[in-house]
Predict the 3D structure of the following.
Amino acid sequence: MNHLALGLTVLLIGVSAADAADFKQPLENVITGYIRPATAAFAESAADLPDAVSAVCAESDDARIEAFKDVFSDAVRDFSRIQFLRFGPLLDNDRLSRLSFRPDPRGRAQRQIRKLYASKDTSVLSAQSLAQKSVAVQSLTALELIAFDKDTDVVLGRSGENTDYTCGYALAIAGNVAQIAEATATGWANPDGYSRQLLSAGPENARYRTATEAIEVVYNALATGVTIAKDQDLIPALGKSEDKAKPRRFPFSRSGNSVVYLTGELDGIHDALVSMDLKPLMSPADQWTLDTLGFEFKNAGNYLAALETPLRKSFANTGNYNRVTALSITLSSIQELMVDGVAGALGLAGGFNALDGD
């Protein structure tokens, strides 16, 4: 019996060592190769928002309006490339919801914003006090609601009864978003922060006992990101038929940035997956799944590139409905490949449909 116990102990030690050697490198790869530069890029684009808001509010000429639209679009693009990283710094202090309050099918944010305007609530006119308010009124999605009209035109800075209040509120949102983006990037850049938790799995780590547990959290976020893209970002807008489509349900459709967001969302998931360099950990018989995933992500990108924009104006009679339908089918294929193919080949487990933090 003692020999058996010793044998089991040696076996378990061997498995633990193999686990650490196998999965620590992909974790390092995705942190340094994707997450840190992607969160830094979002912090950089978000930092441009306050100046863009101030400029268009000072004088809403064509040049400043276009500059604001570009800066807002860049922030949406860079946010979309990290929003699926639903673990660690992006979830601390409810940052994800404070950056983007969606899905919001019942228009909760718009109702709350109307109440702010009705009472002229001055607590939303500084980034510090706004950060203590409802997540629905302090995000990029809130800025979109007050800066763009239903026809995707910029109304921020336009002369009217609420011009000063809107500009003050928009500047507070911009500053708040910039602060959250910077905090998220700093959280990932800190070598002694959450990154260390992921990379130091073991008996002394209260969160991750094995490197397998750590990589499952990361991989699960990527796979769940595809589920969110299909089930939350596409399907509600498609409706039950082309006649019943609801293109305003696409993310950031009010500002005309739906395709920007969707493209960044899927490119980000794919780039994060590629950065992990998982192929060496898979048997030659299973490596085809990664190659096929690359092919399917390319197909998804082609469908997005073919869409006429802005989607809330161009969805009818343009072929966009069929393209988005085909895109949703492609995402189903990507889901299957990621969960049954790659995860299965690597022996990873997890609730790949759990929308944690959403």
